Amino acid sequence: MSDKIYIFGHKNPDTDSICSSLIKERFNRKKGYTKCFAARIGKINKETQFVLDYLKIEAPEFIEKIDDGQEVILVDHNDFGQSIDGIENANIIGVIDHHRIANFRTSEPLYYTAKPYGCTCTILYKEYVQNGLEISKEEAILMASAIISDTLLLKSPTTTNHDRRALEELEKIAGIDIKKYGLEMLKAGTDLDDFSEEELISLDAKSLEKDGGKFIIAQVNTVSIDDVLKRQDKIEEAIKKEIESKGLDLFVFAITDILNSNSEAIVLGKKANVVEKAFDKKLENNKIFLEGVVSRKKQLLPVIDKNF
Ligand code: MG
Ligand code: MG
Ligand code: MG
Question: In a designed cystine with 16, which of 33, 44, 146, 260 is the match (CB 3.0 to 4.6 A)?
């Protein structure tokens, strides 16, 4: 077992998961905890790669599984289903997160910070301020990138005033036009052409369970829903394989237009009617258009979970 303390976000890491682990490592080190190391439990996506390239910094270390008793700090998630293999037997000493608490337990007391903000990095920003720690330009851009990503440039309904204020302050420190930077960053994440359909449906997929049933809500961002739907047949094939191999009852693949703030979802599985009930709208050709829906956490997961 390593005497390092690993800090990592969820599977299929997004920009918040990566930036939060990097920021929490820096925060802890500034506080004198030198054994803390940022890590990641999946591949860096294109949006996050844009951030790392912009700042010319390395991605956190990739870890595949952990030993029993390994000390870890979770950021941007708590659900064991979205965490690393072996998490059940790890020693979770801290959590910093902005999701509902589900499928989570520890045998020891821990530090747990949960805030219903739009982004984990907003929580970390406040911890910097509360602790009187200076925020470097690089740290400001890391945190701003995460906030822009999770709130889609403050347009998602998950956005809170805490996120707005944090981004405003971070923009001053970063000294860049954050809207221009943010749009470029988001667009970098919408380049889906060189992904296979199997990859597309797993880039940002969350597996969930309820009453013994299993479902996945996956999401991709795009600037053209039609562009993605050109591949609908092959996407459906990939989803059907996934349903088969994982024994899923429902698969929702949300294609989110980040410029117009709408989504269209491809819905398959024997419980596909759950989505029809959730939105009081019929599927047509396995698709449903969801006006104004951009947030899995606030607009998809709760209604689907409730009707599942
Ligand atoms: Mg996340
Ligand atoms: Mg997040
Ligand atoms: Mg996300």
Answer: 146
- With a cut of 80, say whether residue 1 has pLDDT above it: no
16 C-alpha to center of ligand 2: Å?
5
Angstrom distance (rounded) from CA 121 to CA 143 = 5
Look at strands 287-290 and 262-268 and give their pairing: antiparallel
Q: 32: phi > 0 → left, psi -120 to 50 → alpha, else beta; which?
A: left
Domains of the chain listed by start with CATH number? 5-187 (3.90.1640.10), 197-307 (3.10.310.20)
**pTM reported for the whole predicted model:** 0.89
| Amino acid in the structure at residue 241 | K
Helix and strand numbers, DSSP H then E, in the chain:
11, 11
Distance from C-alpha of 143 to C-alpha of 57, rounded to nearest angstrom: 14
* pLDDT tens-place string over residues 122-131: 999 999 999 9
Q: Name the closest ligand to CA 147.
A: 2
CA torsion sign, 237 to 239 to 244 to 245?
A: positive
Q: 47 CA distance to ligand 3 centroid (A)?
A: 11
Question: Could you tell me the end-to-end alpha-carbon distance of the chain, in angstroms, rounded to an integer?
Answer: 40
Pairing of strands 36-40, 61-62: parallel
Note the ligand closest to the C-alpha atom of 118. Answer: 2
Ligand (nearest to CA of 10): 1
Q: What spacing in Å lies between the alpha carbon of 279 and ligand 2's midpoint?
A: 25
Using alpha carbons only, give the angle 263, 182, 28 rounded to the nearest 5 degrees.
110
Are the CB atoms for 62 and 38 separated by under 8 Å?
no
Q: Are 304 and 217 in contact (CB under 8 A)?
A: yes
**Taking residues 98-109, what's their average pLDDT?**
94
